[in-house]
């Protein structure tokens, strides 16, 4: 029998299959946001191992996002994103060292802002393809509850 986490992981893998590159970026942001939230909750309750594991996962996601940057074609946007990822890594390290749930929440806000920007890119680039298939449906966002953040 699959656990709740196993079901969620399976769903994410299925969603990623055949996804556009922009959709994959959105999925990576989703993963970072979820892990940041888990790290923040673990920091609040003093669960060190869970906080560190969730933080380590965020580092892996940031590294993948950073590796995926195309500096040649991305120009200033790629440089800005690279700088954002460097700041995010530093803030994550600080949050982890201090076990500060507020810094984790700040990071959630930062990632949500960028996720929403990427989601808009996804909607615009997929609009002609999806217009016939979605009947006006929009992509969901898990970031509405976060108002803190960094804007793209």
Task: Indicate the topology.
Blueprint: H1 4-16, H2 21-45, H3 48-67, H4 71-98, H5 101-134
- Specify the helix fraction band: over 70%
CATH topology of the domain at 20-125: Four Helix Bundle (Hemerythrin (Met), subunit A)
Calculate the mean pLDDT score and round it: 82
Radius of gyration: 16 Å
Determine the strand fraction and express it as a percent band: under 5%
CATH class of the domain at 20-125: Mainly Alpha
Number of strands: 0
**Based on helices, strands and strand pairing, what is the structural class?**
mainly alpha
Principal-axis shape equals globular
Q: The biggest beta sheet, please?
A: none
Order of helices and strands: HHHHH
**Number of separate helices:** 5
**Unreliable runs:** 134-142, 144-152
End-to-end separation in angstroms reads 42 Å
Q: Examine the secondary-structure arrangement and name the CATH architecture of the domain at 20-125.
A: Up-down Bundle
Q: For the record, what is the CATH homologous superfamily label of the domain at 20-125?
A: Flagellar protein FliS
